[in-house]
C-alpha cells in the first residue's frame, strides 16, 4: 500500500543546532514534494517545493533534499531558533501532478533555548 | 495572513445536525481545496474545485458535499453529523489546477465540535 512516513512525531533540539526531519514514502513515484509549516490551531504555510530532478533546494536557513532512489526527502533547518518550533508536514503527489497532495502526519519540532 | 478566509472559526453542534462551512479563496486563485485534520488522521484531502467545477475527490464521505460558486467562494456541507466528524476543516486555494506546481495557501480553519 502507499504510505508517507515522517520520521518521528516529535523532535527536540538545542537552539543553534541543525534540525533534520525525514519524510519517507513507499509505492509512490512523485514528481514533486512540498514542505509546509503548521503552528497549533492554524493552517499550514508553504515553505519549499522540490522537483524529482532537483537534488537539493535552499531558502534562507532551510534546505530540502529529494532522493527518488531512497524514496526520501530530508528537511534541514540550520541555526535553529525557538521561533522555528512548529509541526512540519511533507506533502507529495500520488499521480504525477493530476491529483492534489497527500500529506504526512508531520513532525513536531521543539527548539529549546 | 494567507488571504484565504474561512467562516465560522468555531462551530459546536449536535449529532445528526447539518452545518455549512464557507471559504473565500485568495484573490485571483481559481482552485479551492478542502481538507479535514484530526489528531489521529492528519491532514486529509476531501475535494477540489477549479473555476466552479469539481476537479478531484479524496476521502470525502457521502454525507459531505461541496460546491464552488461563480464568485469562486466555496461551501462545504456536512450532514448527519457524527462524533467522529469533529475536526479542523481547512480550505486552501492556489492559482492553478495543478497543485504541485504552485503552493497552496491555507485558511485559518474551522474547528467543528460535534457533541
What is the compact description of this entry?
The complex is a heterodimer of chains A (113) and B (115). Chain A is mainly β.
Distance between the termini of chain B: 31 Å
Radius of gyration of chain B: 13 Å
Helix content of chain A: under 10%
Q: Helical stretch count of chain B? A: 0
Ends of chain A: how far apart?
A: 41 Å
Biggest interface found:
A-B, 22 and 25 residues
Count of runs of 4 or more consecutive helical residues of chain A: 0
What is the ordering of alpha helices and beta strands of chain A?
EEEEEEEEEEE
Number of strands of chain B: 11
State the low-pLDDT regions of chain A, or none: none
Q: Could you give a short account of the major beta sheet of chain B?
A: 7 strands, mixed
Q: Which regions of chain B contain 5 or more consecutive residues with pLDDT less than 50?
A: none
Helicity range of chain B: under 10%
Strand content of chain A: over 45%
Radius of gyration of chain A: 13 Å
Summed over residues and divided by their number, the pLDDT of chain A gives a mean of: 90
- Class inferred from helices and paired strands of chain A: mainly beta
